[in-house]
Write a structure and sequence with these properties.
The protein is mainly beta. It has one domain. It has helices at 97-103, 128-133; strands spanning 13-16, 29-30, 33-42, 49-57, 62-65, 79-82, 87-88, 109-111, 115-117, 142-143. The strands form three sheets. Strands 1-3-4-7 form a four-stranded antiparallel β-sheet, with no helix packed on it. A hairpin with a 6-residue loop joins strand 3 (33-42) and strand 4 (49-57). The radius of gyration is 16 Å and the shape is elongated. The two termini are 28 Å apart.
Length: 145
Protein backbone atom coordinates (compact mmCIF):
# COMPACT_ATOMS: atom_id res chain seq x y z
CA UNK A 1 0.00 0.00 0.00
CA UNK A 2 1.27 3.43 -0.86
CA UNK A 3 0.81 6.37 1.49
CA UNK A 4 0.34 9.72 -0.17
CA UNK A 5 1.59 12.86 1.54
CA UNK A 6 -1.34 14.96 0.37
CA UNK A 7 -4.91 13.97 1.07
CA UNK A 8 -6.36 10.83 2.58
CA UNK A 9 -4.92 7.36 2.05
CA UNK A 10 -6.78 5.87 -0.93
CA UNK A 11 -9.38 3.21 -0.15
CA UNK A 12 -9.22 3.58 3.62
CA UNK A 13 -12.12 3.80 6.02
CA UNK A 14 -11.97 6.74 8.39
CA UNK A 15 -13.16 7.09 11.95
CA UNK A 16 -13.30 9.70 14.65
CA UNK A 17 -11.94 8.83 18.07
CA UNK A 18 -13.54 10.28 21.16
CA UNK A 19 -12.26 9.04 24.51
CA UNK A 20 -15.06 7.89 26.77
CA UNK A 21 -13.08 5.67 29.14
CA UNK A 22 -9.99 5.99 31.31
CA UNK A 23 -7.28 3.55 30.25
CA UNK A 24 -5.20 1.78 32.88
CA UNK A 25 -2.37 1.25 30.37
CA UNK A 26 0.42 3.69 29.59
CA UNK A 27 -0.52 5.54 26.42
CA UNK A 28 2.27 6.50 24.00
CA UNK A 29 0.32 7.67 20.95
CA UNK A 30 -2.94 9.56 20.54
CA UNK A 31 -5.06 10.97 17.76
CA UNK A 32 -8.54 12.39 17.28
CA UNK A 33 -8.88 10.36 14.01
CA UNK A 34 -7.76 7.04 12.59
CA UNK A 35 -7.75 5.24 9.26
CA UNK A 36 -8.25 1.53 8.58
CA UNK A 37 -6.51 -0.31 5.74
CA UNK A 38 -7.95 -3.65 4.66
CA UNK A 39 -6.70 -6.50 2.49
CA UNK A 40 -7.35 -10.21 1.99
CA UNK A 41 -4.62 -12.86 2.20
CA UNK A 42 -4.55 -16.64 2.58
CA UNK A 43 -4.01 -18.00 6.09
CA UNK A 44 -0.51 -19.42 6.62
CA UNK A 45 -2.00 -22.61 8.09
CA UNK A 46 -5.31 -23.41 6.40
CA UNK A 47 -4.89 -21.31 3.19
CA UNK A 48 -8.42 -19.89 3.48
CA UNK A 49 -8.55 -16.22 2.39
CA UNK A 50 -8.99 -13.99 5.43
CA UNK A 51 -9.44 -10.25 5.84
CA UNK A 52 -6.58 -8.39 7.51
CA UNK A 53 -6.71 -4.83 8.80
CA UNK A 54 -4.19 -2.23 9.92
CA UNK A 55 -4.76 0.97 11.87
CA UNK A 56 -3.12 4.14 10.56
CA UNK A 57 -3.02 7.63 12.00
CA UNK A 58 -3.09 10.80 9.88
CA UNK A 59 -0.61 13.67 10.19
CA UNK A 60 -1.24 15.60 13.39
CA UNK A 61 -1.34 12.57 15.68
CA UNK A 62 0.83 12.84 18.78
CA UNK A 63 3.55 10.57 20.17
CA UNK A 64 4.87 10.65 23.73
CA UNK A 65 8.51 11.72 23.94
CA UNK A 66 10.00 10.25 27.12
CA UNK A 67 12.31 12.36 29.27
CA UNK A 68 15.47 10.21 29.30
CA UNK A 69 17.54 12.87 31.06
CA UNK A 70 15.47 13.00 34.27
CA UNK A 71 17.24 11.73 37.38
CA UNK A 72 14.13 9.89 38.58
CA UNK A 73 10.56 9.20 37.57
CA UNK A 74 9.33 11.97 39.89
CA UNK A 75 11.41 14.51 37.92
CA UNK A 76 10.55 13.23 34.45
CA UNK A 77 8.73 15.62 32.14
CA UNK A 78 7.39 13.65 29.18
CA UNK A 79 6.07 15.72 26.27
CA UNK A 80 3.66 15.08 23.40
CA UNK A 81 5.17 15.65 19.94
CA UNK A 82 2.99 16.28 16.88
CA UNK A 83 3.79 14.04 13.90
CA UNK A 84 3.88 15.49 10.39
CA UNK A 85 3.39 12.15 8.57
CA UNK A 86 0.96 9.22 8.52
CA UNK A 87 1.83 6.28 10.78
CA UNK A 88 0.76 2.65 10.87
CA UNK A 89 0.37 1.17 14.36
CA UNK A 90 1.91 -2.19 15.25
CA UNK A 91 1.64 -4.35 18.38
CA UNK A 92 -1.37 -2.45 19.77
CA UNK A 93 -1.66 -3.28 23.47
CA UNK A 94 -4.62 -1.02 24.25
CA UNK A 95 -7.60 0.22 22.29
CA UNK A 96 -10.58 2.02 23.79
CA UNK A 97 -13.56 -0.37 23.83
CA UNK A 98 -15.55 1.67 21.34
CA UNK A 99 -12.65 1.60 18.83
CA UNK A 100 -12.22 -2.17 19.21
CA UNK A 101 -15.97 -2.53 18.65
CA UNK A 102 -15.66 -0.56 15.37
CA UNK A 103 -12.68 -2.61 14.15
CA UNK A 104 -13.81 -6.15 15.02
CA UNK A 105 -16.60 -6.33 12.40
CA UNK A 106 -14.06 -5.44 9.68
CA UNK A 107 -11.81 -8.48 10.27
CA UNK A 108 -11.12 -11.29 12.68
CA UNK A 109 -9.30 -9.14 15.24
CA UNK A 110 -8.57 -10.62 18.69
CA UNK A 111 -6.78 -9.57 21.87
CA UNK A 112 -4.02 -11.99 22.99
CA UNK A 113 -1.87 -9.61 25.07
CA UNK A 114 -2.06 -7.25 22.09
CA UNK A 115 -4.54 -6.77 19.25
CA UNK A 116 -3.78 -8.97 16.25
CA UNK A 117 -5.39 -10.24 13.07
CA UNK A 118 -6.57 -13.86 13.24
CA UNK A 119 -7.72 -16.23 10.54
CA UNK A 120 -11.50 -16.08 10.17
CA UNK A 121 -11.63 -19.84 9.52
CA UNK A 122 -9.15 -21.55 11.89
CA UNK A 123 -8.80 -18.60 14.36
CA UNK A 124 -4.99 -18.73 14.52
CA UNK A 125 -3.06 -15.44 14.69
CA UNK A 126 -1.61 -14.17 11.45
CA UNK A 127 2.16 -14.60 11.69
CA UNK A 128 4.50 -11.64 11.37
CA UNK A 129 6.47 -13.43 8.68
CA UNK A 130 3.31 -13.80 6.61
CA UNK A 131 2.52 -10.10 6.96
CA UNK A 132 6.01 -9.10 5.79
CA UNK A 133 5.89 -11.48 2.83
CA UNK A 134 2.50 -10.17 1.71
CA UNK A 135 3.11 -6.45 2.11
CA UNK A 136 2.32 -6.36 5.84
CA UNK A 137 -0.82 -5.48 7.69
CA UNK A 138 -1.15 -5.69 11.45
CA UNK A 139 -1.72 -3.23 13.89
CA UNK A 140 1.57 1.11 20.11
CA UNK A 141 -0.83 1.66 22.52
CA UNK A 142 -3.40 3.93 21.01
CA UNK A 143 -5.33 6.64 22.77
CA UNK A 144 -7.60 9.44 21.78
CA UNK A 145 -7.92 12.94 23.00
Amino acid sequence: MRVFQIGVLPGLAQGVLEMTESPTHSINIRSPRFLVARTVAPCWRCSVPTTLIAVALPPGHETLELDDEASGEAHAVDTWQTAAQHAFLFHIEFLPNFVAAQLQPLASLRYDGYWANHCAWCDLPVRRQQRRERGGLSGGRADTR
